[in-house]
Amino acid sequence: MSKFSPFHPPLLYLSFPFPPLPSLPHVTLSLPPQPSPADANNAHLNQFILHSSLDMLEKAMWASPHMHLRAIDRFNGQVVHAFLTAGGTAFLLLHDGSGGEDSILGFFKGVYELYVKLLMNPFCEMDLPIISPAFESRVRALERRWLR
């Protein structure tokens, strides 16, 4: 049984560095890969929720010495969890609030490891979105392992 509702699949958003630094790669993934038509209609709302939670991220990042900032924002039963990397990149996960903190932390740590490996690649373009199918498939594997 899934830890997350199939009606509101988690949405992972790796934002630009926060606070602003030279641009690093970014990606937005909807997990699972094929959202339902209802979720496709709410894609703009999900983006709005994630972008509006950046203000809450700014408050939380100064209040906590940890990289995993936990739940930083809530909207209509959806929860935004944040993970702030050492380089200042924020990982935001929007989901329906089910699932434990340990599974979300494990997911974030796995994505962070993949992200660091991607940045160490000499062919990685720093100012462009991440469009690597291998990166996306590995993030989806982490989602199946930790968030379902």
Q: How many β-strands, per DSSP?
A: 5
CATH architecture designation: 2-Layer Sandwich
Q: Main beta sheet, described? A: 5 strands, antiparallel
Cα radius of gyration in angstroms: 14 Å
Distance between the termini: 7 Å
Gross morphology: globular
Kindly report the average pLDDT value.
75
The proportion of strand residues reads 15-25%
Number of domains: 1
Percent helix range: 40-55%
Element-by-element helix/strand order? EEHHEEEHH
* Count of individual helical segments: 4
CATH fold topology = Beta-Lactamase
What's the CATH class label?
Alpha Beta
Find the structural class using helix and strand composition. alpha+beta
Q: Biggest sheet, strands in spatial order? A: 2-1-5-4-3
Low-confidence stretches: 1-10, 15-24
Q: What's the oligomerization state?
A: single chain
What features would you highlight for this structure?
single chain, about 150 residues, alpha+beta, Beta-Lactamase, five-stranded antiparallel beta sheet, 4 helices, 5 strands, about 20% strand, disordered N terminus
